Amino acid sequence: MNEINPKTPVAGSCPICGKPVEPAFKPFCSKRCADIDLNRWLSGVYAVPAKDDEDEAGERPAEGEAGEK
Ligand SMILES: [Zn+2]
């Protein structure tokens, strides 16, 4: 009873394309997907407009404006 099911995913599926993970490129299915993820991650880090968010979320100069809520 040591059958190995070839359809058993190694560790789930590639987060990029959903194909079975290739052990050599864990957790991706290929170098291509690893690169894609890396690029995504890098551009995400540098592309996130954090300033925009902060501007609206938090520090407003108190001008005595009682508006919404
Ligand atoms: Zn993939």
Topology:
Blueprint: H1 31-47, H2 50-57
The chain binds zinc ion.
Zinc ion binds next to loops.
Notable features of this structure?
69 residues; mainly alpha; Erythroid Transcription Factor GATA-1, Chain A; 36% helix; 0% strand; binds zinc ion
Report on this structure:
With 69 residues, the chain is mainly α. The protein has a domain at 10-46: Erythroid Transcription Factor GATA-1, Chain A, CATH 3.30.50. Helix content is 36%, strand content 0%. It contains two helices and no strands. The chain has helices at residues 31-47, 50-57. The model has no long low-confidence stretch (mean pLDDT 75). The structure holds zinc ion (ZN). Zinc ion is lined by residues 14, 16-17, 19, 28-30, 33.
Quick one: overall form? elongated
User: Looking at this structure, what is the CATH superfamily of the domain at 10-46?
Assistant: Erythroid Transcription Factor GATA-1, subunit A
Biggest sheet features: none
How many strand units?
Answer: 0
Radius of gyration: 22 Å
CATH architecture of the domain at 10-46, by name, is 2-Layer Sandwich
Quick overview of this protein structure:
The chain has 69 residues and is an all-alpha fold. Helix content is 36%, strand content 0%. Bound molecules: zinc ion.
